[in-house]
Amino acid sequence: MKIAIAGYGQEGEASYKYWSANPDNQITIVDRRKPDAEVPEGVPVMIGIDAPEKLQGFDLVIRTPRMRPDMIKTDGKIWSITNEFFAKCPAQIIGVTGSKGKGTTVSLIASILESAGKKVWVVGNIGKPALGILGQIKTEDVVVYELSSFQLWDLEKSPHIAVILFIEQEHLNVHVDMDEYVLAKANITKYQKNDDILVYNQSNQYAKKIAVNSKANLLGYPDNLSAHVNEGNFCFGEQIICSVNSLGIVGKFNYDNACAAIDAVWGITNDNKTIESGLKSFKGLPHRLQFVCEVDAVKYYDDSIATIPGAAIAAVNAFDGPKVIILGGSPKGSDFTNLGKELAKQDVKAILTGDEAQRIADSCKNAGFNNFEIMEYISMDKVVSRAKEIASPGGYVILSPACASFDHFKDYGDRGDQFSAAVGRL
Questions:
Q1: What are the start-end ranges of the E strands in 83-212?
Q2: Superfamily grouping for domain 2-79
């Protein structure tokens, strides 16, 4: 089979490894610019801004997630790692999407199922490369797949259990508008049948809009009929599961993520002790409100994974007391209006840096929040030192940028690592 791999970064490498295992496949690497990854020796390469438009004659074109499907012109089939995995995976798949909380909810689901004695495979943005472990998965296992809008864009098969978390404006630097973004998310349930399950955030207008058109059994959360919090306990209907204090991660916003996870696993395990054990066992993701250390009675938290305004709002609301929040980075097309409004209600000072600093500042001023300063990015040490200067004893310094990281960093992990290292040098 003649195959083009369109976009050659980390996912492209995984695609090449998988499809090149069949010696009958003839593979060509295609990219609009010089590939991020090293191309294997002897493999044909097509590079150019219009290269994805010249793919006639290929049987299969493997799309990298961030490449829009309509950028590819071919008389063959446009495909993806996600589609291949869904088509070949022998186990039940629980798919999770949303604008924030995906990684945490995926991890909570996996932790509960592991407590129930299940063999669980976490794949997607926070897990192992999907195709790399496909051959190891058995029918009785469970796969928990974190799915972005880019992975869902052209999905042709929905998971048995789909979870839609809170959706807000994101990735509008790639999607043409919010409608297209939500439509891509909707593919997580598009092919579900009436014996499948859709767990969705019923307080979110976009998740509700998707759920209305789903054929699956609907479980809205939080809801008195399913997972919710009542008098300090996680409950399912009238059944008390455990105290919310069993949750091993900070932030009341994580109660919603826990409720989504409980709903997702309920048909597999509804044992109170198992669910409580799973909630306790998960201690949080790297760079997601991760405690760094305390310096001069100020606690420092790395929330670099917060690349959208809603995640930064959640971080600010996670702590009582005076706060300094470090905001800014590269653009994702986000609207910072609600972030500005939330900061205006808080005992908080903000340091704005990076490419989006001025847009955030404009939103803050429009919301009546002026307790911020724009700081030209020189180094993370300079930013952290300034945060230390303006922080109050008994308070918090939180790196929660509300933006992508590609202005001064390789990725959000690099940004968080540099923040933690700078805090360590205080």
A1: 92-97, 120-124, 142-146, 161-164, 197-201
A2: NAD(P)-binding Rossmann-like Domain (3.40.50.720)
